[in-house]
Amino acid sequence: MESSSELVPFPLLIESNYRACTIPYRFPSDNPRKATPTEIAWIELFANSIPSFKKRAEDDETVPDAKVRAEKFAQRYGEILEDMKKDPESHGGPPDCILLCRLREQVLRELGFRDIFKKVKDEENAKAISLFGGVVSLNDAIEDPVKRVENLVRGILAGNIFDLGSAQAIIFVDNSGADIILGILPFARELLRRGTQVVLAANELPSINDVTYTELFEIISKLKDENGQLMGVDISKLLIANSGNDLPVIDLTRVSQELAYLAGDADLVLLEGMGRGIETNLYAQLKCDSIKIGMVKHPEVAQFLGGRLYDCVFKYNEFSG
């Protein structure tokens, strides 16, 4: 189950030599009928996540017979992963993080599970909304604009400051809760205060705890003050876009037509989160300045990058065209 409309390439993407997945799972010389050690490691990573997904599915009160269906999910997805160990091309492979995510979501949706993380997302959003005013007030109290920006972006941009004179910025957002509400939105608010048009691009369909574009509308509606502003800042230049995506990773050759239209004049793109900014698109080249940022949460990614688990990655590319 993918986007309900036709997907198109992100217009700011330089498509020549683009490969969505950052890690090379196999090379042309590898046997197409035999899983590589890297593919095996990633299949095992996704297999190890099955019990936690099964538990979330069992607790989904919106699905009849959730416990029985959750067991079927665990069995079916586990069998798919075992098949791919024996034959990497058995389920549309060879496998990479995009395919492994897509197969997991496909099995869940076929069994009637639409959003197994909905409960935890709602809880985390409620907590973060209650803290939003305090976070923004602390930032606003910093008179030095450079220090204020540094404080805003320290969490999501690893302490680096970039040019905030952008006319338009596209931000591919990640998780619900503190990530979007206490990280991205205060940062977006500062951009708006400086006159920048900000486009927040969020998933069309639910996937793990990532915020969807409909949920983002609801969050901002709850954060607006009596004047329809974000703590006194006009949000008429804030746009929420459906990215067309339904996974925690993203292939930039497949985005919604809506986002493609809005992205035409952007001069800064930020891909936030491990899935969108590290596991995919870390080396993507764009026709504007770009930032890829996230925390490394998988040992396999840390090993590939030569770092440690929970290291933060910040990659800024200045467009020189």
Describe this structure as you would to a colleague.
- There is one protein chain.
- With 321 residues, the protein is of the alpha/beta class.
- It has helices at residues 37-48, 50-58, 66-86, 97-110, 118-140, 145-157, 178-193, 213-223, 257-262, 274-279, 299-305, and strands at residues 7-8, 168-172, 197-202, 238-242, 255-256, 268-272, 289-295, 312-317.
- The protein folds into 2 domains: 24-95, AF1104-like (Up-down Bundle); 118-317, Rossmann fold (3-Layer(aba) Sandwich).
- The strands form 2 sheets. A 6-stranded mixed beta sheet has the order 4-3-2-6-7-8. A two-stranded antiparallel sheet has the order 1-5.
- The relative contact order is 0.15.
- Residues 157-164 have low confidence and may be disordered.
H/E series: EHHHHHHEHEHEEHEHEHE
CATH architecture of the largest domain: 3-Layer(aba) Sandwich
Number of helices: 11
* Major sheet details: 6 strands, mixed
* Residue share in β-strands: 5-15%
- Give the structural class: alpha/beta
Termini separation (Å)?
A: 37 Å
What is Rg?
20 Å
Strand order within the widest beta sheet: 4-3-2-6-7-8
Overall pLDDT metric: 91
Low-confidence stretches: 157-164
Q: Kindly provide the name of the CATH class of the largest domain.
A: Alpha Beta
CATH topology group of the largest domain: Rossmann fold
Residue share in helices?
A: 40-55%
Molecular shape: globular
CATH superfamily of the largest domain: Uncharacterised protein PF01937, DUF89, domain 3
Total individual domains:
2
- The number of distinct β-strands equals 8
